[in-house]
């Protein structure tokens, strides 16, 4: 008598990997998630750039005031809206220049409408000479103010977010 053995195919653990369908579904899910998250990420990154630029300008102003007092030599900060830069100067010598990242704009005035250079010069006693006279530097995105840096004639520097 002959015996027939039926071999039933079972899931063999040596067969590893993903099917093409599984890969396509996974890629589709990742693409959808990226499509949902990307706009929020771009807004977050731009807001971080505004905040960083505002803090860097504020830091440069405080550094200029400290140098003026410590070294008994006038220091100044000039913000140039024409090329979105800001510079630290000792007398007429430029010590450092930084540029605002895109899409950040640097403007003067409390309303952020002044397009001329904004100069803040600190004397050895820490007081400030301001040009233009309101002492405001605006960090914005074209039309909306994001942050306002204010320097008073006494040398007080403040940084606040605009809503």
Layout of helices and strands, plus pairs?
Layout: H1 20-71, E1 75-80, E2 85-90, E3 93-99, E4 105-108, E5 118-122, E6 128-131, E7 136-140, E8 145-151, E9 157-161
Antiparallel strand pairs: 1-2, 1-5, 2-3, 4-7, 5-6, 7-8, 8-9
Tell me what you see in this structure.
This protein is an alpha+beta fold and 163 residues long. It has one domain (20-161): minor pseudopilin epsh fold. It is 32% helix and 30% strand. It has 1 helix and 9 strands; from the N terminus they run H-E-E-E-E-E-E-E-E-E. The strands form 2 sheets. A 5-stranded antiparallel beta sheet has the order 3-2-1-5-6, covered by helices on one side. Strands 4-7-8-9 form a 4-stranded antiparallel beta sheet, with helices on one face. A hairpin with a 5-residue loop joins strand 5 (118-122) and strand 6 (128-131). The longest helix is centred in the N-terminal third of the chain and has 52 residues, at 20-71. The termini are far apart. The model has no long low-confidence stretch (mean pLDDT 87).
């Amino acid at each position: 008598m002959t015996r027939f053995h039926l071999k039933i195919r079972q899931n063999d653990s040596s067969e590893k990997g993903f099917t093409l369908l599984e890969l396509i579904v996974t890629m589709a899910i990742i693409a959808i998630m990226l499509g949902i998250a990307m706009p929020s990420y771009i807004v977050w990154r731009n807001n971080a750039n505004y905040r960083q630029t505002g803090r860097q300008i504020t830091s440069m102003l405080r550094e200029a005031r400290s140098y003026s007092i410590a070294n008994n030599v006038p220091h100044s900060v000039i913000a140039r809206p024409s090329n979105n830069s800001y510079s630290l100067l000792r007398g007429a010598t430029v010590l450092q220049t930084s540029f605002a990242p895109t899409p950040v704009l640097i403007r003067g005035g409390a309303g952020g409408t002044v397009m001329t250079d904004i100069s803040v010069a600190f004397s050895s006693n820490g007081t400030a000479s301001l040009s233009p006279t309101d002492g405001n530097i605006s960090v914005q995105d074209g039309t909306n103010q994001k942050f306002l840096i204010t320097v008073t004639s006494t040398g007080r520097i403040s940084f606040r977010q605009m809503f």
